[in-house]
Every structure is written in C-alpha cells, then in structure tokens.
Amino acid sequence: MFSSHGPSVRELAVQGLSSVERGYDLLAPKFDHTPFRTPDRMLDAVEETLAQWEGTFGSGLDVCCGTGAGTGMLRRLCRDRVTGVDLSAGMLAEAGRVHADDDRVDFVRADARALPSALADSYDLAVSFGAFGHFLPAERPALFSGVHAALREGGVFAFPIGAPIPPGSPVWWAVAGFDAAMRVRNAVWRPPFVMYYRTFPLSGVRADLRTAGFTVETVPLEHFGRRADGAPRWRLVLARRS
C-alpha cells in the first residue's frame, strides 16, 4: 500500500502521462514509499536461493536497478564490484544516495536494451526485479543479448517470475483490465508509457533466453508456497552464459 510519504493521486497521474524515463524521474524521490518497490521478502528469498544454489559471486550487475533495492542484495552476494544500471537519472540519484558510502558500488545511466560495451565480459551475476513489464516482447532479444554480453563465461542472469494467473480469477481480471487500459492510453497519448503485466510468460522468456545464448533452468522459490495444483507460486530463473 502507499504510505503517507508516497506520491499523491495527482503525482501518479502526471507520471502515468509521461514517458517511462520521465515518469520515473518524477516518481523517484517517493518511489520507495510505494508498492512498486520490490518487497524485501522477495529480495531475501532470491538472495537465500542464490546463495544455496550458486554460493558467492565475483562481480554483480543490477539491470534496471531503480532506487537500488536489489543492489544491496548483490552487495552481500558478491565479493567485488557491483554496478546498477537504469535509464532514469532520478532513480539513479536515489540509488546513489542510498549507497553513497559504499566504494564497491557504482551506477551507470543506460538503456537496458543497449548496454554500454564497457560493461561487456565484466560480471558473474546479473539480476533484475520488477522491470520486465516495461519491455515489449519484441524488445526482449535485445535486452537478453545485452545481459549475455555483460556476463563472463559461466555467469548467471537471475530473476523471479510468477506462476500464470488463473483465468477468470479476480487478479486475472485486474491485471487484464490494467493492460487494456494501458494499451488504450498508449494508442491515444504520446509519449507512450510501456508497462504491462501479461507480456512476460515463462515459455516465451525461456525461448528468448536460449536464443540469446543462455542455458536455462528454474528453481522454486518455496518461500511463497505452492498453488493448489502443486506448482510453485514463484520461480527463480537461472540463465547461464555458456
């Protein structure tokens, strides 16, 4: 839920009528007081699972780092350099403030679909949280190829992905309605604000990761339990550069 320190309805409306970059620049100072920030429960689950399955890492890359919620997790998992990358200067400013006293953390302003060549072959672990709805399916190959290039041989790209929402459930109708509203908004208003909840299915993501050169496995995040059919509610995707 939004706290009293979060954005007003008017501020959210202005953000929603801006571009993705400008919208997050406006939201950045209050972003951590919104439900859009990745919950600590998710960060802790991913950190624990990565430590159990992979151990520790050399250097880490936080793709679409926002205000740096995942950067702190990387800092604990990685022995060496940790870099956060984001398109929004406002979000990077907040992340830099949070991690100002850590000389092993640096931030780079860049589009995740075109990561700078200076980052190539530099990282052992890359993570991303809560950002994939900002990428259309046709943009995933560029995103995944850039992360693949940034990783060293054997490096891992890790991110959580939720189980499909049962069709007809209240949550399904809510996210379907949101996506429909965003498509209408983007059809009649410029600049577009790309944010969709149902454009990142595991099957398509797995295929695009393999095309980019990754081997892919998934690990249940048992912290969030299982559905009635026994499937995990959340999985951790482990895509390895091979």
Automatic annotation (TrEMBL):
Gene3D superfamilies: Vaccinia Virus protein VP39
Gene Ontology MF term list: methyltransferase activity
Domain Methyltransferase: 61-155
GO biological process, alphabetically ordered: methylation
Keyword terms: Methyltransferase, Transferase
Record protein name field: Class I SAM-dependent methyltransferase
Top-level taxonomy: Bacteria, Bacillati, Actinomycetota, Actinomycetes, Kitasatosporales
